[in-house]
Design brief:
single chain; TIM Barrel; 9 helices; 43% helix; globular; binds 1,3,4-trihydroxy-5-OXO-cyclohexanecarboxylic acid; lyase; DHquinase_I; 3-dehydroquinate dehydratase activity
Length: 254
């Protein structure tokens, strides 16, 4: 299993790392929120740019990014436009999605970009290639807010992300039952043991799935999303408690 290194952060070994999303509308709120992260255990910050009121103006996006990077003081940054089709705040056409992600990767201000794996193969490959050309890592993603797909389908989606060339495949699915959570965890383990040559991220959403956000070290998910002020998806727990739970599980596995 290869690890992925961003700044001083190594993903894919040891205790799962904690990513905190910023979901805010204005520049002031975004920067304020980032400033509040100094007091909590955060390994990586995700800027969910689909929430930003100025997202359609690249200059405004770059302006926020440069202030954000200054406030984060070296904490790696993941740039994510989550489309409405996958649970985000707004829709975007694939050409604009590609242009935005490529332009942001070229600024040198972000460490990783999120690329939705089902945006279209050509678009996804184009962004991944451009990001890699700029030394930016790619998290490929897929979100199923309605259900937890069958095992083969979860594995197919994760393997497709790997085939597209993403550094870290990620899938978030919604459970309709407790066995759905078990299937997501089993799929994670099978992916890691049989198919993956790189770290992956998986989660089962909502309260029933919250256990999957804690148990990544057991089943093979390298990163977990925790909430600081506002959760960006159902089932995210507070960062402080999340960190304690990850450490407890880590200790029990030694
Ligand atoms: O892809 C993900 C995972 C997520 O949806 C979650 O369930 O924690 C939260 C999103 O902000 C992030 O982009």
């Amino acid at each position: 299993m290869n690890t992925v290194k961003v700044k001083n952060l190594v993903l894919g070994e040891g205790i799962p790392k904690i990513c905190v999303p910023i979901v805010a509308k204005t520049k002031r709120e975004i920067i304020e929120e980032a400033g509040s992260f100094r007091a909590i255990p955060v390994d990586l910050v995700e800027w969910r740019v689909d929430w930003f009121e100025g997202v359609e103006d690249l200059e405004q996006v770059k302006d926020v990014l440069s202030d954000l990077v200054a406030v984060l003081e070296g904490t790696p940054l993941l740039f994510t436009f989550r489309t409405a089709a996958e649970g985000g705040e707004r829709a975007i056409d694939p050409a604009a999605y590609a242009a935005l992600n490529k332009a942001v990767a070229a600024t040198g201000l972000v460490d990783l970009v999120d690329v939705e794996a089902f945006i279209g193969d050509a678009v996804a490959r184009d962004i991944i290639e451009a990001a890699h050309g700029e030394g930016v890592k790619v998290v490929a993603s897929n979100h199923d807010f309605g259900k937890t797909p069958p095992m083969d389908d979860i594995l197919y989606r994760l393997r497709k992300m790997q085939d597209l060339g993403a550094d870290i495949p990620k899938i978030a699915v919604m459970p309709q039952s407790r066995t759905d959570v078990l299937r997501l965890l089993e799929a994670t383990t099978i992916m890691v043991e049989r198919y993956a040559d790189r770290p992956i991220i998986t989660m089962s959403m909502a309260g029933t799935g919250a256990v999957s956000r804690l148990a990544g070290e057991v089943f093979g998910s390298c990163l977990t999303f925790g909430a600081a002020n506002k959760a960006s998806a159902p089932g995210q727990v507070g960062v402080q408690e999340l960190s304690e739970a990850l450490q407890l599980i880590h200790k029990s596995m030694q």
